[in-house]
Each structure stands twice: as structure tokens, then as C-alpha cells.
Design a protein that fits this description.
There is one protein chain. The chain has 262 residues and is α/β, with parallel strands linked by helices. It contains eight helices and eleven strands. The chain has helices at 29-41, 52-62, 78-88, 103-111, 124-138, 174-185, 193-201, 210-223, and strands at residues 21-25, 45-49, 66-70, 94-98, 116-119, 148-151, 154-157, 163-165, 168-170, 231-234, 238-241. α2 runs parallel beside α3 (78-88) and α6 (174-185) crosses α8. It is elongated and about 70 Å long.
């Protein structure tokens, strides 16, 4: 199974096309390392600071598009740090990070000008989504339409990883998604098992090409079940995906699904 690199994911960019910038401020090295790794995986430029003084200095020089700020810092609390950072960057969105989850603490942080609030322990995925949302709402990032693959009534969102057929959501595993994406990037083209193995699994199965047959059958159950088929078998050649009403290459004798075969 292939993995999705940051280059293949939906990356946020500044208006000039450079990666967005995020400043992480926390005095716990384990926290800053973990957050830096997660944010850099998104393709973002990340700087860190462990106290208010270095946070303000870094913000002034780095000019981040968002700040993740711990409320409890060794020299000043996060509320004071926020005020000083905003003295240089009045519009920068700030997400507070704290171990305290009392309602009054949340209210204090938001009243002071924080844009969002996450408590420890936290989900890295949730935090990334929240930071992404803050930057979008602030207008700090360049607008970009999602990349869609469309074949007939089948639509695949390469960034959201959502698939729909005739408007109905189709839930796929990671491998099923990669296989369908490869087929949809090559509509009406017959793809051999060897090609599919190389592009979807990225290594040779030592002749075990039946894994392709297996995953084609999985896709058919989810994509074609109860509908006109879109995934067809070309005997001795491979597989082809085409719109249900497309009678182009890949149709005719020897194509289409035979009972009991993938």
C-alpha cells in the first residue's frame, strides 16, 4: 500500500505560493517536537519558542500565519504573550494550548483575543484541522479549489479523499482509494495487473497478481453494486474504468464482468 506524501496532500500556501508559517510556543520540548513534526508533515514551515521573550522575537522575524500558544509559560502567561505578539502581528490567528480546561480559563483566553482553544492531552489530527481552519478564516492563505477526478457519475476528491457515485458517498479503504484513483486518472485505458501493482502497491508481489483481482472485486462491490458497471475486465489484458454509458475502448466481447470472476 502506498502512503500519501505531503506533496500529494492538500497543502495550504501563502498568496506568494510559499508554505504557510506556524509558530509553536510551549516550554515542554516533547510537545513542541510532536507538534512540529505533525505540522511539517502538512508541508508547513514551523518555528518554535519556549518562552514569551523568544516567542515575541520569533514572531517579529518569522511573521507566522498562525500561532499555537501554551497558556502556561515560564516567564509570562500566554495571555501576556498574546498581547505582545499581537503588538507586531495584529491579525495573526492564535490557538491556545493548555492543560487547564475550566470554563473560566477558556473564557479568559478567548476574551483576551485567542481564536480557538485546545486542552491537553489533545488529538494531533484535531489540532491540525483547527489550525488549518483558523488560517483559512483569517484569509492568510491563497484560495485553491479541490482537485477532483470525474468519470461519468463517479467523483473522487484527491484532497478530501471523498468518493461519490451519483451523489451517494462511497467508503473506501486507503488501498481501495489508491486503486480507484489510478483507474480514474486513466479513464477508458486498459491497465494491466503489472501496471496496477507497480503504481498502487509500488513493489512486486512476486507473481501474486491475484491481489489486484481481489481489490478490483472489492471496488466493484462498492462502486458498481446495484448500478450499471463502470469497472470492466479485458481478458488477457487488464482492467478499464469508464462511464456507465460510455461505449468507447474497452467495451465489447471479452470485457465486462463475468459471473464469478473479478
Amino acid at each position: 500500500m502506498t502512503t500519501t506524501s505531503p506533496q500529494d496532500r492538500h497543502r495550504l500556501l501563502r498568496p506568494d505560493g510559499s508554505p504557510v508559517r506556524v509558530l509553536v510556543v510551549d516550554d515542554e520540548a516533547s510537545i513542541t517536537e510532536l507538534l512540529s513534526m505533525a505540522l511539517r508533515y502538512e508541508g508547513w514551515d514551523v518555528r518554535t519558542a519556549a518562552d514569551t521573550a523568544s516567542a515575541v522575537r520569533t514572531a517579529r522575524e518569522f511573521r507566522p500565519d498562525a500561532v499555537v500558544l501554551d497558556v502556561m509559560l515560564p516567564d509570562e502567561d500566554g495571555l501576556a504573550a498574546l498581547d505582545r505578539i499581537r503588538g507586531h502581528l495584529p491579525e495573526v490567528p492564535v490557538l491556545f494550548l493548555t492543560a487547564r480546561d475550566a470554563v473560566e480559563d477558556r473564557i479568559a483566553g478567548l476574551t483576551a483575543g485567542g481564536d480557538d482553544y485546545v486542552t491537553k492531552p489533545f488529538s494531533l489530527e484535531e489540532l491540525v484541522v483547527r489550525v488549518r481552519g483558523l488560517m483559512r478564516r483569517s484569509g492568510a492563505v491563497a484560495g485553491r479549489e479541490e482537485r477532483l477526478l470525474v468519470v461519468g457519475g463517479l467523483v473522487l476528491g484527491e484532497d478530501s479523499r471523498e468518493v461519490r457515485r451519483d451523489g451517494d458517498a462511497v467508503e473506501l479503504t486507503a488501498t481501495e482509494f489508491e486503486l480507484l484513483r489510478y483507474l480514474m486518472r486513466n479513464p477508458r485505458r486498459v491497465l494491466s495487473k503489472a501496471q496496477i501493482l507497480d503504481r498502487v502497491w509500488s513493489y512486486d508481489f512476486g507473481g501474486k497478481a491475484n491481489v489486484v483481482e481481489l481489490y478490483i472485486s472489492y471496488l466493484r462491490r462498492k462502486i458498481d453494486a446495484g448500478r450499471a458497471p463502470m469497472i470492466h475486465t479485458r481478458r488477457g489484458a487488464g482492467y478499464v474504468l469508464k462511464a456507465a454509458d460510455d461505449a468507447g475502448p474497452g467495451s465489447g466481447p471479452g470485457t465486462g464482468r463475468r459471473p464469478g470472476t473479478p
